[in-house]
Specification:
The protein is mostly helical. It contains nine helices and no strands. Helix 2 packs antiparallel against helix 6, helix 3 crosses helix 7 and helix 5 packs antiparallel against helix 9. 36% of the residues are buried. About 4% of the residues have low confidence.
Length: 210
């Protein structure tokens, strides 16, 4: 695999990473309330899911998933249900905070690093759109006759590196506004917006076709 294929993949992957989606919303929810470490735990979860999808693609399991209407439907519904569940949970937390004082501690909203990692991992592992990205991208950028497995994991590494760079910048940005998170109005707004967006992504995922 030459630099031409790698540079082309960098362009495609960068557009995917930087486009609005559940990952950015999750970072926006996690960092102001739980700190930078939790945000990087989210990113670690993203990367782990990328390698999972890359491995499945190498062995052809993802292709079988997309080709099987029933399997695709099951994974799609599980992923949609997970996103909607996160959204509903966030909305419930926003409603519970309606009676809080103007200044509150963010400790009530913090998540552990392990939970932040699992949220990042599941948000991507259960997203068939990520699987479809790997299935559509790999055949285009892996040269015929080469070591498919090595080339595939090089692309996964590139995708992961782009994600780390982009979301590290977002983590730094959201961490700067952490002072605002002490206001109960901000916490309610953030949880409410997060809940609505995740539910929206879940509903949209339900209509996704392979």
């Amino acid at each position: 695999m030459g630099w031409g294929e790698i540079l082309s993949f960098i362009l495609v992957a960068s557009l995917l990473v930087m486009s609005p989606g559940p990952n950015g919303v999750l970072i926006a929810k996690t960092v102001p309330l739980s700190g930078r470490k939790a945000g990087f735990a989210n990113v670690a979860g993203f990367v782990a899911a990328f390698y999972l999808h890359g491995t499945l693609s190498v062995f052809g399991i993802s292709l079988l998933l997309v080709k099987s209407a029933e399997a695709f439907f099951i994974v799609k519904m599980v992923g949609a249900a997970y996103l909607i569940w996160i959204g509903i949970k966030a909305l419930r937390e926003a409603l519970k905070g309606a009676g809080l004082p103007k200044q509150v501690s963010t400790k009530n909203y913090r998540v552990t690093l392990s939970k932040a990692f699992s949220e990042g991992f599941l948000t991507n592992a259960l997203n068939p759109k990520v699987t479809m990205f790997y299935l559509s991208a790999f055949p285009q950028f892996i040269p015929v006759g080469g070591d498919a497995a090595t080339s595939a994991f090089v692309l996964v590494f590139v995708h992961s590196l782009i994600s780390v760079i982009w979301f590290s910048a977002l983590i730094g940005l959201f961490f700067k506004i952490r002072a605002a998170t002490k206001k109960s109005s901000f916490q309610k707004w953030l949880k409410g917006v997060t809940g609505a967006v995740f539910i929206g992504f879940g509903v949209k995922l339900m209509t996704l076709k392979p």
